[in-house]
Amino acid sequence: MLQPVQQSFPSLNYANVLVGLDQPDDAAVIRLNDEQALVQTVDFFPPVVDDPYYYGAIAAANAISDIYAMGGTPLFALNILALPEDLPAEIVREIMRGGADKAAEAGCPIVGGHTVKDKEPKYGLCVTGLIHPSQVMKKGGAQPGDVLVLTKPLGVGVITTAMKRDQCDPAHFQPAIESMARLNKIAAQVATQFGARGGTDITGFGLLGHAIEMATQAKMQFVFDWAALPWLPGALAYGEAWVFPGGAGNNQAAAEGKVTFADHLADWQRMLLHDPETSGGLLLPIAADKADAMIAAMQAQGQAAWQVGHVQAGSGIVVR
Fold it and tell me: Is pLDDT above 60 for 1?
């Protein structure tokens, strides 16, 4: 919603702004010198789970993920909280504890923050990171022949929606929580080591929405293999039962005319690819001759990774 408004402002052409409003990405990048650049992002949202500790941890992981999506290393963070006046202090403490624990796992101390009053809780972080100016992973870096690698399974949106509607099998909810709370730290580090062309993290716009951003900026076509896509336990069943959040419909409308689906894919399968994710994995284009080695290196460090498609000349998205 805000991107067209932001892009309507005149560019000031600061020489040290490597990534800004002219080429929207997961975070801003500001050159400090020939060897260092700052990466900065901010992200916060209402509760996606009932447990305040996990809510804080997921929100923190989601915010820090934008630094990883650029290939950077988080340095420090600031809390952002919007709180109802009658919210018990113990719940606030647990939200902040979850965020602090996850930030500590990332080696990213929380050194301050800001709060406002609001009717609904909202929590997240403003995160500052560091990167070498030549190693920035932008959304538009994909090249023809690249392999597309995904580092977390999909389906968070339908699972959390099933939970809110009391339709979720408890056995399905915990894996979704653990996936959302998992950092993209190892995935980003290994991707940088293997020279990934670019990347983004899969969040509210769903797999296809974020893939469209990448393909558009790269002026390429992304081809996904439905059968190769990884799903959280229960996600396919909830999708087939049409347990979708409202955001899935919004994402579908925004992608109209930009995605070509194979005829054999059912409506619920197509909609699942618009499912809004929270703190999802990285989508990484990597040269085909490096893909297997990169995936193996991730797996050796306990980081899951899947080859889910490829890049070719053209435009838009194809799902086959």
Answer: no
Ordered by start, the domain boundaries in the chain are 3-135, 147-319
CATH number of 3-135, picked from 3.40.50.80, 3.40.367.20, 3.40.50.10950, 3.30.1330.10: 3.30.1330.10
Average pLDDT over residues 68-73: 96
The answer to whether residues 58 and 103 touch, using CB atoms and an 8 Å cutoff, is no
Q: How far apart are CA 57 and CA 183, in angstroms?
A: 10
* Integer Cα distance of 198 and 218 in angstroms: 10
Flag whether pLDDT at 12 surpasses 70: no
Distance CA 177, CA 242 (A): 21
Residue range 128-162, pLDDT digits in tens: 999 999 999 999 999 999 999 999 999 999 999 99
Sort 65 into a burial class: Cβ within 10 Å, 0-12 / 13-18 / 19+. buried
Say if pTM beats, i.e. exceeds, 0.90: yes
Q: Which two tokens stand for residue 261?
A: 């689906």
CB 250 within 8 A of CB 108: no
How many C-beta atoms lie closer than 10 Å to residue 34's C-beta?
9
Superfamily of domain 147-319: PurM-like C-terminal domain (3.90.650.10)
